Amino acid sequence: MNTQFWICIAIFVLMILGYMQSKVSKTVVALTAMVALVLTGCLEAKTALAGFSNSNTIVMATMFIVSEGLSRTQAVHKVSTLVNKISKGSFTMILMGYVLITMLLAQISGSSSAAFAIMFPIVFAMCDNMGFSRSKMLFSIGIVSIATCATLPIGGSAATFAQYNGFLESNGATAYQLGFWDPMIARLPSLVAVCLYAAFVAPKFSPDLKPVMVQETKEKEKKREVLSPVKEVVGYGTFLFVIVGLLAADAIHVPSWIITLIGALVICATGVLSSKEAYAAASLGGIVMMYVGVLAMGNALTATGAGEAVGSAVAKMIGNTTNGYLIGLVFFLAPFILTQFMNNRAVSNIFAPIAILTCNAIGCNPIGPMLLTLSGSLASFMTPMATATVNMVMGLGGYSQKEMIKMSILPSIILTIVNVVWIMTIYPAF
């Protein structure tokens, strides 16, 4: 481990502490960390700057504009009124419906960010119209979009079995193969557990916004100019176009950022939003810039070898144990913890080979531990470094890092138990 490794770790710790205080904005903390990483040589300048042009960064900014355009129309309010009638005003029934819709969107789109970006304006409008606290519902939508994403073999996730068979082959475990349905079978119980938790338990642990904030939102809505019939149609028509485009992005071979950018341009060009409103929507309290900063930290942790160092330590921890559940627990927890601070794909690529090689060394079946590295690396919902979706959840919900950790503890325990017990039972190591 070189000097830059320890410098990177020190900056990382300071960044986490920065997220836990409230005097300095999270955006300033994230961008300060990015500058420090570049100045200390932990990260190349071009890699840091790449965060500004990252496809997820563009999708976030442009989707915020499209969503703001939708919020200017009466469509969302009409949907909220309909939901209110069907649910008879029940918060739990409404949330359960939104949880199921979010879960389905996360499967079809294959993107937690896309699913969340589609849902949050609808959730916000419903909460404002019915007097519910936004923050009581937003974490539930966020955790479902993240923890259930790409569970069903739809779109790109249909190739997951092939990707992991490639890991098995390249790491000398040719006697074992995954079937097409195995990744889904492994993650299905956790999908059910997350949905039930989000609908019935999560609101109890989510902070409640003061009622005055809801009233202020309503007053702002009253002051806004009513859209003309044509702009009204453009507002929700563009949103529907973007939704369909995001869901069909892989099939039509068009990048998601192109689709959301087109939508944002239409919203601005037709006057649904003024240029001032569009700029405000795109920045959305610094969420996008905050994401750029946390991308830099994730890249630095990878570049300095932090991921590999953790992986090597995990392999040593396993030793020669013959307890399959203990092996599974280690290979779920290690990537689960690391994915809160690094890109989940990078974490998965680090730990899948380590799991296979470790199992080869102790003579056990690597299928279960390998699938647990997949499940663990995809459960990234604690910190803004985990995924773009967490940035949106924190920014839109007003959650602090401390509140995010507090809300994440119980679902983390549930996911650990469900995944380890289920996967190591149906795919035993010995």
Overview of the molecule:
The chain is mainly alpha-helical and 430 residues long. It has one domain (3-210, 226-426). It is 75% helix and 0% strand. Residues 211-219 have low confidence and may be disordered.
Q: Give the distance, in angstroms, between the N- and C-terminal Cα atoms.
A: 35 Å
Q: Calculate the mean pLDDT score and round it.
A: 85
Oligomer: single chain
Structural class: mainly alpha
- The value of Rg in angstroms is 22 Å
Strand content: under 5%
Low-confidence runs of at least 5 consecutive residues: 211-219
Number of strands: 0
Roughly how much helix do the residues carry, as a percent range?
over 70%
Q: What are the secondary-structure elements, in order, as H or E?
A: HHHHHHHHHHHHHHHHHHHHHHH
Number of contiguous helices: 23
Q: State the shape.
A: globular
Number of domains: 1
> Strand count, sense and closure of the main sheet?
none
What's the topology here?
Blueprint: H1 3-20, H2 26-39, H3 45-49, H4 55-71, H5 75-87, H6 91-109, H7 112-130, H8 134-147, H9 160-170, H10 182-200, H11 202-205, H12 211-223, H13 229-247, H14 249-252, H15 256-269, H16 275-283, H17 287-303, H18 306-318, H19 324-338, H20 344-362, H21 367-378, H22 388-397, H23 401-426
